[in-house]
Specification:
The complex is a heterodimer of chains A (113) and B (234).
Chain A (H helix, E strand, L loop, with lengths): L2 H18 L5 E9 L6 H11 L9 E7 L2 E3 L6 E2 L17 E4 L3 E8 L1
Parallel strand pairs in A: 1-2
Antiparallel strand pairs in A: 1-6, 3-4, 3-5
Helix pairs in contact in A: 1-2
Chain B lengths: L11 E8 L2 H17 L2 E6 L6 H12 L5 E7 L4 H6 L5 E6 L8 H7 L10 E5 L16 E7 L6 H4 L1 H5 L3 E5 L4 H4 L3 H11 L4 E4 L8 H14 L8
Helix pairs in contact in B: 1-4
The chains are: A alpha+beta (113), B alpha/beta (234).
Chain lengths: 113, 234
């Protein structure tokens, strides 16, 4: 369960950005979580609930955008979205190791005033 | 619940696009540069608790410490038991107690390296916290990553913990001496590793009987030879 540390980092970054913009309250945080990031959205929400009291994001909404996985076949170089965690190329049928997207763990935006 | 409309200042939308692992990535890059400058091969060992990371290291240190200057950084939640098991085998051991943290982070490795003379080392093992989930997300700046899978754990581990296996340079199947009593289906396990982690070499061994250990050492030796060429690994 490393989601608490990541949420702490998100809240710290959000608060800093809000204050730098002259805002005093955060209304919404938007995060993008890749399906391969190793992060459980529910654990992230739990961490948010636990950490937000006493911060300027105390009453904020948390939007989690789940980013799908995109791979590239190491043989034919076709890009494809795998259905599960075995990344089989739909054209060649061989498993692929190259991941183009799906590892993201980003604080996309903050709404503040 | 306060709605934005009730507050007088206008609502600002701040687009940040901030990578939440950025700080760890920076520390990992710094570690990697340091390891390369010192010419040391750094191997990060990941597995579930009880897969045999410490046993593999015990055997490896006993066999290799005369040949290669080696050190181990051990990450453990509460105890330094692993560090004590590894002591007295000719290697410098630096324990890190992570407390409640379920993984090692790059900054912790950077601090632990202060206790080591990297330029005198050839090989540095990092024994991560026993956990197949969280450590997978944290680059420590290592040269190679090994994921262990023991024959008593079940053949479907790679399917259950794909992220860890996908990040592996090699998968070491441990406790092969227990394969038969455990009813371990070897081919199925290997097929699952290859399906999830086609990039990974597979090594089968038993640290207890020594079976397969030579293959493991040859793999390390090959990595040692190519370590300077392994620049932008991940």
């Amino acid at each position: 369960m490393h989601e608490a540390g990541l949420m702490e980092e998100a809240l710290r970054a959000a608060e800093q950005a809000a204050r730098e913009a002259g805002a005093e309250r955060i209304h919404r945080l938007r995060l993008r979580i890749g399906r391969l990031s190793g992060v459980e959205p529910e654990a992230l929400r739990l961490a948010f609930e636990a950490l937000r009291p006493g911060t300027i994001a105390e009453h904020a909404h948390l939007d989690l955008e789940i980013a799908p996985v995109l791979c590239r076949c190491r043989r034919c170089h076709v890009e494809f979205a795998p259905e599960d965690f075995v990344f089989l190329c739909p054209r060649c049928g061989i498993p692929s190791a190259e991941v183009l997207r799906g590892l993201e763990l980003e604080l996309l935006a903050v709404e503040a005033s | 619940m306060t709605s934005p409309q009730e507050t007088s200042p206008p609502l600002k939308v701040l687009h940040l696009g901030k990578d939440l692992l950025a700080s760890n990535r920076q520390h990992a890059a710094a570690n990697r540069a340091r390891f390369q400058a010192a010419g040391v091969l750094v191997v990060n060992l990941l597995s579930a608790p009880g897969s045999g990371k410490t046993a593999l290291l015990e055997r490896t240190l006993s066999d290799l410490a005369d040949r290669w200057p080696v050190a181990v950084i051990t990450g453990d939640l509460q105890t330094d038991n692993d560090a004590r098991r590894l002591a007295g085998r000719g290697a410098v051991i630096v324990p890190i107690a992570t407390g409640t943290l379920c993984h090692l982070e790059a900054s912790m490795i950077g601090r632990a390296c202060e206790e080591l003379d990297l330029t005198r080392l050839q090989l540095l093992f990092i024994e991560n916290v026993g956990n197949l989930v969280c450590p997978a997300s944290y680059d420590l700046g290592e040269t190679r990553r090994i994921v262990l899978l023991s024959t008593t754990e079940g053949e479907d581990k790679p399917l259950k913990y794909p992220l860890a296996f996908k990040s592996a340079d090699a998968v070491v199947i441990t406790k092969t001496d227990l394969a038969e009593p455990a009813g371990f289906r070897r081919e199925e396990a290997r097929a699952n590793v290859t399906a999830v982690a086609p990039q990974a070499d597979i090594i089968e061994l038993s640290a207890r009987t020594g079976q397969g250990m030579q293959e493991f050492y040859l793999w390390l030796e090959a990595a040692l030879v190519s370590r300077s060429a392994a620049a932008v690994h991940r």
